Amino acid sequence: IKILAIESSCDETAAAVVVNGRDMRSNVISSQIALHTLYGGVVPEIASRKHIEKINQVIAQALSDADMTLQDMDAIGVTYGPGLVGALLVGVAEAKAISYAANIPLVGVHHIEGHISANYIENPDLKPPFLCLVVSGGHTHLVKVTDYGTYEILGRTRDDAAGEAFDKVARAIGLGYPGGPKIEKVSHEGDPKAISFPRAKIADGVYDFSFSGLKSAVLNYLNGCRMKNLPINQADVAASFQQSVTDVLVDHARHAIREYHMDSFAIAGGVASNGVIRAAMEQMCREEGVKFYHPSPILCTDNAAMIGAAAYYDFIAGKRAGLDLNAVPNLKLGE
Ligand code: ATP
Ligand code: MG
Ligand code: FE
């Protein structure tokens, strides 16, 4: 089964060809990061316009990289939520047009299912059930993947997502957008034990997360330094913040592995490309005796190959979308 996948939920215009959900034949990503850096974050209106400009050439490139044509495709998979409504609409409209014009079945894909499914591409042995920690720009979900396309959410963030915390802290210490990679880079020069930031625990939800308190603690620390005219060591703040996020993520994951007796654990989403978080997860999994899976960095952040992987399992389960498929900006996982 050959799937042309399209992703445009945020600031990446992406298309890919994936065969049987695991064999990635092409993966084209046109990132708008440079464009939005000017404004310190993603500007939705600009993102939509740029998607329109790029989408046709990105799809053409994905097909040509895969050495295939539209006529070779068995299905079109497209992200229809969650994300920015204007950005999503570009991909959805494009996918519907292709589906109608070339008479190819359409499959609507949940963006977070895509992030989780990125793990299938480079790990042929990974099969449900497994636990997955999704850490992205808008989500922090601890999920039990009971079967392909079947998810049980064990915990989620009560406020900011992990990636959002990285982005906000990066802005506060003057690193700018996008925050995650910049914090990781400067953290190598810092001491993760230099400043003791909080590790939030939630009394009535052992698997839930909270990152807004950590963000406030960083802001308070910075303000305190400024008021007392003390120097701020950017690298120490970055490393200490990153360590706090890492400890909380690892702690929750370890707890879930023990309680649910899973033998496989995966991470997904943009924050999963963080080397410090990855190494800590890997060590925890070794200690707990479970297999650790993660996508390569390029498949952690937004891409269409992950949408193709998810679309395949939806497709073989018989799921189809009609030409009435619409963008759903706040689509929930498992609906
Ligand atoms: P969502 O998937 O929840 O809809 P999104 O698509 O915007 O949100 P992703 O593209 O999955 O999010 O990931 C982007 C996020 O990942 C950003 O918040 C970014 O700062 C973070 N990120 C990327 N690389 C790293 C890194 N090396 N370390 C930490 N965070 C990172
Ligand atoms: Mg992005
Ligand atoms: Fe994403």
Task: Describe this entry's structure for a reader.
The chain is of the alpha/beta class and 335 residues long. The protein is 45% helix and 19% strand. The strands form two sheets. A five-stranded mixed beta sheet has the order 3-2-1-4-5, with helices on both faces. Helix 5 (162-172) packs parallel to helix 7 (212-227) and helix 6 packs across helix 8. The longest helix is centred in the C-terminal third of the chain and has 27 residues, at 234-260. Magnesium ion binds at residues 10-12, 301-302. Its EC number is 2.3.1.234. InterPro entries: ATPase_NBD, Gcp-like_dom, KAE1/TsaD, TsaD.
Radius of gyration: 20 Å
Number of helices: 11
Helix content: 40-55%
Mean pLDDT: 97
Largest sheet: 5 strands, mixed
Outline: globular
List the secondary-structure elements in sequence, H or E.
Answer: EEEHHEHEHEEEHHHHEHEHH
Strand content: 15-25%
Coarse structural class: alpha/beta
Catalytic activity: L-threonylcarbamoyladenylate + adenosine(37) in tRNA = N(6)-L-threonylcarbamoyladenosine(37) in tRNA + AMP + H(+)
EC number: 2.3.1.234
Cofactor: Fe(2+)
Enzyme class: transferase
Please describe the structure with a list of short key phrases separated by commas or semicolons.
335 residues; alpha/beta; 5-stranded mixed beta sheet; 11 helices; 45% helix; binds adenosine-5'-triphosphate; binds magnesium ion; binds fe (iii) ion
